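re: ur question from earlier - yeah i can do the single chain one, its not a big deal. heres the input i used so u can compare w yours
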Amino acid sequence: MDSSKIREKIGRFRILVIGRANAGKTTILQRICNTQDKPKIYDSAGEEIDLTVLRASKERGEHEIENEMVFESNPGFVFHDSRGFEAGSKDEFDKVKAFITDRSTQAKIAKRLHVIWFCIPMDEACRSFTAGEEKFFTECDTASIPVIVLFTKFDALYGVEFRKLIKTGTSRKDAKQQAPKCAQETFTDGPQLQFLKNVRWPPKCHVCLPHMNKDDADCGALIEQTAGALDDEALEQLFVSTQQTNLEICMKYAIQR
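and the output i got, formated as tokens:
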């Protein structure tokens, strides 16, 4: 089916982004939508929400997962934001679980969630899943909605490996060059991926995202993994044609079809 006809049928590609505060969620969405601007927020009735009102609600601890985030640079994506489960809040977990259940059973595909990006930052000392995050993967069945774990701020591990290399007598120049590869190798056998292999509801895949705060940040891995996680060909085509940051992936999927 032609991309324009798919967009006419489905509309926008809908993503739920889950992650604790300072996990780098907004930065990643800005990179995907190729902008540095803040998103516009709309309520479930499609009315734009004043950001000052929204900020005041957040300060009171209020949060509405039904709100839609849209970037003017790429309105083909609509994002829903969950603040994560860092506080172990049962209310927040139940709210997210109910939202996923509702959005996985909508009659119209345009209203369904199409993918979930679950962000875990690697710049915190423990670099592990919180109890609430573990609960998500052991108790939350997302049905046909694929979950992709995004290990954000992955470059924090480069610094860890850099210091290890320096202690072994490696020069600073060589340590800087070797650190990214060492970080990836260490991470492959680390506790984060071991945990995800043994949970009841494992993610479809994961992606490591370093340096997303830089202007030339590369989102290629995230785009490719997301496209590959979609079992529905129409959704895959919609996602690939909606993203505007990687022309090579557009060409690759066009050739495959």
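The first helix runs from residue 3 to 10. not sure if urs matches, ping me
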